[in-house]
Amino acid sequence: MENKLDKPLVWKRMKGRLAQNAVLQAIFFVATIFGLIVLALLLSRVIIQAIGWLDGDFLNSFPSRRPEEAGIKSGLVGSLWLMMIVAPVSFILGVGTAIYLEEYARKNRFTAFIQTNISNLAGVPSIVFGLLGLTVFVRELGLGRSILAAGLTMSLLVLPVIVVAAQEAIRAVPQQLREASYAMGATKWQTICRVVLPAALPGMLTGAILALSRAIGETAPLVVLGIPTFIAYLPSSVLDTFTVMPLQIYNWTGRPQEEFQHVAAAGIVVLLVFLILMNSVAVLIRNKFQKRF
Question: Mind telling me which InterPro entries this protein's record contains (predicted)?
C-alpha cells in the first residue's frame, strides 16, 4: 500500500503550530507575571507605609483630625453591621430567584427577558445602584442614611452576581439526581431541598463570596447615599447612621497632612485582612458541604 503521507508538509504545519503555541504561552506567562508584580508592588508599598501606624490603638480608636490619634474603630464596626444586612438579604433573594427561574419558571420569552436583564444588571455601574437606593430607601421609605438603607442598596448591587452564580450551580446538578428523587416518591420541593440545593450549595457560596467581597469594598453607592466619612461613635441599631472602612480610607487620602497617607495605608491593611478572613470562613463552609457529594 502506497504511503500518501507528506511528511515535509506535516512537519511544516506542526512547526507552525508549535511556534504559535510557544508565542501564546509566552504572552500568558508575561501577563501573569505582570499582574503578580503589580500586586506585589501595591501590597509592599501599602504595608511599608502602614508600619508604625497599625497597632491596637489604631483598631480601638475613633477617627480624629490628628493623624497620630486617628483610628478605624467606627469604620470596622460599621462594615460588620453592613455585612449583617447584605449577606442574608442578598443570599436569600438571590438563591430564591435562581430556584424560581431554574426549577419553576416556564422557558418562554418572558423568562428569557428576565434572565437577560439580570445578566445586564451585573454590569451596571455601582453609582446607578446608589442613585436607586437614594430614591427608594432614603427618600421614599424614609430610612435616611442608616445601616438598613445602605445594606439594602448594597444587596441590590450584588444580587445579580449571586443570582447568576446560583443559576449556574443549579444547572450543574445532574438531571439524573432529580429523576432518582422523583422515582423515590419525593415531591418537587423535597427534591429541591434535599437533592438540588445541597449539591449546588458549593457553587452558590462561591458566587456569594465574590459578591460580598465586592460589597465590602464598594464606595460609590455609599457616597451617593450620603453616608458620612467621619463618625466618632458606634451604631446601636440598623436605623443608626454609620460609616465603613472604604469611606474612612477615602476620607484620609483626601486630607492635606502627609501623615494621613500612612493612616490610610493602615486602614487598607485592616480592610484586606477583614476581606481575607471573611472569604476564608466562606471557603471553609463551602468545602465542608463539598465533601458530602
Answer: MetI-like, MetI-like_sf, Phosphate_PstA
How do residues 220-234 score in pLDDT, each as one tens digit? 888 888 888 888 888
Please tell me whether residues 75 and 90 are part of one structural domain.
Answer: yes
For 42, the domain range is 7-51
d(CA 202, CA 286): 5
Q: Is residue 2 part of a domain?
A: no
Cell numbers given for 138: 432614603
Q: Are residues 62 and 193 in the same domain?
A: yes
The pLDDT tens digits for 272-281 are 888 888 778 7
Q: Which one, of 201, 200, 182, lies nearest residue 190 by Cα?
A: 182
Residues 24 and 120 in one domain: no
Model confidence, pTM: 0.81
Counting Cα atoms < 13 Å in the Cβ hemisphere of 237 gives: 3
Which of 209, 225, 231 lies closest to 134, judged by CA?
Answer: 225
For the chain, what is the domain count?
2
How far is residue 94 from each of residues 67, 114, 261, 288, measured CA to CA in Å? Answer: 41, 14, 38, 21
Judge whether 226 and 242 are in contact, CB under 8 Å.
no
